[in-house]
Write a structure and sequence with these properties.
The complex is a heterodimer. Chain A contains 8 helices and no strands. By secondary structure, chain A is mostly helical. Chain A folds into 2 domains: 109 residues, Orthogonal Bundle (Rna Polymerase Sigma Factor, Chain: A), CATH 1.10.1740; 50 residues, Arc Repressor Mutant, subunit A, CATH 1.10.10. In chain A, α2 packs across α3. Chain A is flat. Chain B has 9 helices and no strands. In chain B, α3 packs parallel to α8, α5 packs antiparallel against α8 and α7 packs parallel to α9. Classes of the chains: A mainly alpha, B mainly alpha. At the A-B interface, α2, α3 and α4 of A face α1 of B.
Amino acid sequence: MTEPHHDELEALMCEYLAGRIEAFDGLYAALGTRLRAYLLSLCRDSSVADDLLQETFLQMHRSRRTYQPGRPVAPWVFAIARHVFLMHRRGSARRVRFLERVAAAVGADDMMRDDRRALADVDAVRRALRAVPADQRRALVLHHVEGWSFAEIADRLGIRLNAAKTRAFRGMRRMREQLK
Amino acid sequence: MSAPNALRDLVARDLAPARPLAPPAVRALALVPIAAAIVASVPALYELRPDLPSIGALRAFGFSIAQAIAGVAIVAAALRESVPGRQWPLAQVIALVAGGLLMPLLLPGLAAQAFDVAPPPAGAVPVGVACFRTSALAALPALAASALLSARAFPLRPAVAGALYGLGAGLIADAGLRLWCEFSAPAHVLAAHLGAVILSMALGVAAALVSRQR
C-alpha cells in the first residue's frame, strides 16, 4: 500500500473541516492502517488497538479545530493517538491497582498475573528503547512505530535520507541487542 | 481500511463545518491589550518609580516593555504547546522556563543604578509583601485569558502548557510592577518578584489541570 502524500492528507483534512463526511472516510482509509500499527506497537493487544483506533478518530473529530491548515496532518493525528494510548494506560494502571486491592482482599492474586506480565513486557521494551542513543531512537520510533517514511524523517530532523535510514537501522540493531 | 459504521454515523451526526483555530502566535496577540493595560495601569494606579529621572524613561519603560513582549511570546509558546503534534521538546521547555525566570532577575539590574538598592530594613517585609501581592494580582487577567485560549485548543501536556502561560502572565505583570518598584536587592527580587512569577506559574499549572478534568 502506498502512503498518501501529505498534500493529499491536508486536502482531506480541509474538506473534513468544511463538514464533508467523505473526507472523514478518506482520512480513515489513509491513516487507519498506520495508526492501528502504531497503537498496536504501544499496547500490544489487537482488540485494544482497535478500540484505541476508534477513540483516536473520535478525539480527532472533537478536536479537529486544532488542526492548522498548511501543517502536516500525520504528526497532529499521531500525537492524538499517543495521548489516547496514554489515557488508556493510565486507566489500565488504575484497573491493575484496583485488582491488586481486590486480590489482596480476597486472597486470590492469580487473576492479576496476566496483567502484570503484559506490563512487564512493555517495561522491557521501554528499557531497551531507552538504551538506544537519542538520535537513533528518534529515527527508529518515527519509522518503525509511527510509520513515517525515511524521506519524511529526513525532512523533519533536517538530515540526509541515508542518515535517517542508518540511524533507524542502528537503533533497531541496538534495541535487539538489549532485548536478547 | 474503512471506518466502522457506528463510528462513521457518530461523526456524521456531529459533523458541522469547523473553523480552525488561528496559529498560536496570532492567538497570543489577544494578550497584547491586556499586557499594555497591565504595564500602563500599575504606574497609573500607584506611581512611577522614584529613580525614574536618574535612570531615564527610555531605560525604565524599554526594559519593562521588552519583558512584557517576552511574556506574550511565552504565552504564544504555551498556545503552540496546546496544539497536538506541536509540543515543544523538553530541552526547549526547560530553556523557555529558565529564560523566562531569568528575566525578573536581570531586569532590576539592567534598569537600576545599582544591584543592591534595598528597601529600608524596617520596611523590607511590607514592601516585599506589597510587590508580591500586586504582581500576583496583576497577573490574574493575563493568566485567565491565556488559560481560556489554551483550553480552546487541546493541550496534551496540560501541566507544561499551564506552566508556560503562567510564566508568561507572571512576566507581563512583573513588567508593569518594575515601573513602580525601584528595588534591586537580591532578597527583594527573589522573594517578591520572582516569587510572584513562580506563583503565577503554579496557578497556570493548576488551571490547566482543572480545565483538563472538565
